[in-house]
TrEMBL record:
Source species of the chain: Idiomarina ramblicola
Superkingdom of this protein's organism: Bacteria
Example of a GO biological process term: phosphorelay signal transduction system
Name of this chain's protein: DNA-binding response regulator
Modification 4-aspartylphosphate occurs at: D55
Length: 216
């Protein structure tokens, strides 16, 4: 079954371009388009897409406000922010209001399709450049008073911290396994363990929590 996607961007050429590109994939079906956050909220309630691709800066209602209202209205449709803005403020606002992914518009079609698939399967997706910007901004804004490991459910092992650092660098489980000379299964178990100890459900929030605790 194809993944139903809604495109939200105020520029007609961008929407048409994305529509043409994504139509090349046999996994995706574009079921709706909108030119503002307000229109996206109205249409999403009717067509119920599996994933929403959302620009940030749009007239009438921007993407950040739209995601916030979707979540306040009880919508759990995954939202992938697709934008040209890679500043820390925009990225953090998107995460805080409930976006599940954040990509820049210069990504390849393959990466975009992978991200859409990930969100449709209940996962998150943040490209390495975005993750690095998040980490940099959080480290710059971290106060001199760091949280201690008492905030953890259980302290991380040295091996789990090593895996966490590679997650923060944007590596996949397969890439981490190759880097540490471990099996992919072992890495998956360590990722699950460290996320449990951090009390988070996805890799991006694991990195954010680790930074907050002073582990990275």
């Amino acid at each position: 079954m194809n993944i139903k996607v809604m495109l939200v961007d105020d520029q007609t050429l961008v929407r048409e371009g994305l529509n043409s590109l994504l139509s090349l994939s046999d996994k995706i079906e574009i079921t709706a388009q909108a030119s503002s956050g307000k229109e996206a909220i109205q249409k999403s309630a009717k067509c119920e897409p599996d994933v929403i691709l959302m620009d940030i800066r749009m007239p009438d209602m921007d993407g950040i406000e739209a995601v916030q209202l979707l979540r306040e209205n009880g919508s759990r449709i995954p939202v992938l922010m697709l934008t040209t803005f890679d500043d820390h403020e925009s990225i953090m606002k998107a995460i805080q209001v409930g976006a599940e992914g954040y990509l820049l518009k210069d990504v390849s079609l393959e990466v975009l399709v992978d991200a859409i698939e990930a969100l449709a399967n209940g996962k998150t997706w943040f490209q390495p450049a975005v993750t690095e910007r998040i980490i940099q901004g959080l480290k710059e804004n971290r106060t001199s008073q760091n949280s201690d490991e008492g905030a953890l459910i259980e302290p991380l092992t040295d091996k789990e911290v090593a895996v966490l650092r590679l997650i923060a660098a944007g590596l996949s489980n397969n890439e981490i396994a190759e880097s540490l000379f471990k099996s992919t299964g072992t890495v998956k178990n360590q990722v699950s363990s460290l996320m449990g100890k951090l009390g988070v459900r996805d890799r991006t929030r694991a990195v954010l929590k680790a930074i907050d605790l002073g582990l990275l």
